Amino acid sequence: MPESIKTYDFKPGLSAEIELAAISAIFQQHQLNIIKPHRTDFYHIFWFTQGTPVHTVDFIPITLKPSTLLFINKNRVHFFDQTGNYDGWVLLFTDAFFARNTQDAQFLRNTILFHDLLEIPTIQLDEAQTDLTIIFQQMQHELAEPNDPVHASVLQNLVHNLLLLADRERRRQGFTEIKKGPDLDHTLHFTELMEKQFIRLRSVNQYAQQIGITERRLQQAIAKSVGKTPKQLIEERVLLEAKRLLVHTNQSIKEIGFMLGFDEPSNFSRFFRQQIGQTPAEFRKSFIV
Q1: How many CA atoms lie less than 13 Å away from 281 in the CB half-sphere?
Q2: CA-CA distances (angstroms) from residue 178 to 108, 223, 235?
Q3: What is the dihedral of CA 11, 115, 91, 67, to 10 degrees?
Q4: Cys bridge to 183: 29, 132, 146, 224, which one at CB 3.0-4.6 A?
Q5: Distance from CA of residue 41 to its chain's centroid?
């Protein structure tokens, strides 16, 4: 078991930070890496066309059917089904590729496809839904073309259209949507800041100051959006990272607690038990085969 969770950067040497590859090809080339828990600094859109794999994202097993789209945000810890008895396509791209201006960056930050606060997004396609599959085909064609002054722009527009159409289809299929407005904007801003700072910053008031609102207003916004308090979201994020490190690394419980900002191992163990009713040692042991 490694000392840390492997993080992969985007593939170097491409004219634009976007790649569309057959899942079978990715599996053949990188099997030993992708069947192990890992994170990346880029986005994944899977289009499964064959087989019924189980893709695991942060301890959540997702059983997939043919003609399913799966969206995975950057920095999620996930791994592929080790059987390899499935195929399809995976689209990979970075913030640098997509966010050509502030509007693009905001769109990517707020889309329900990568920032659903309640579940990991999947979309089941039927045979009549050719608009999304046509975009995949258009991207394949454009990626095969020689690089020219409009190459990256064409690809970015295709990805943008894919996300817009997928957003529309997900809404048609029904999901628990959080009402748009200032409350959701503040909640997303909070989660974005928290993702970068949760290890060293646990003060709700300081997050509120960074957002430019009062602590009470932040409390109200998050309660209306997800029915929780900011403190609960911070604790859940700390707990998730603790689980990741306990299961996917060989670091000691003392080292993990210290890494997550706990001065004493007993404080870390107490926090962990309060959250899930198990000690860190008991949780780790439950994942040992």
Answers
A1: 5
A2: 17, 11, 21
A3: 150
A4: 224
A5: 10
Position of tokens 């593939």? 11
Looking only at the bridges linking them, the beta strands covering 18-22 and 6-8 are unpaired
Q: Which residues contact 69 (CB under 8 A, 6 or more apart)?
A: 45, 46, 47, 48, 122, 123, 125, 132, 166
Q: What's the mean per-residue pLDDT of the chain?
A: 94
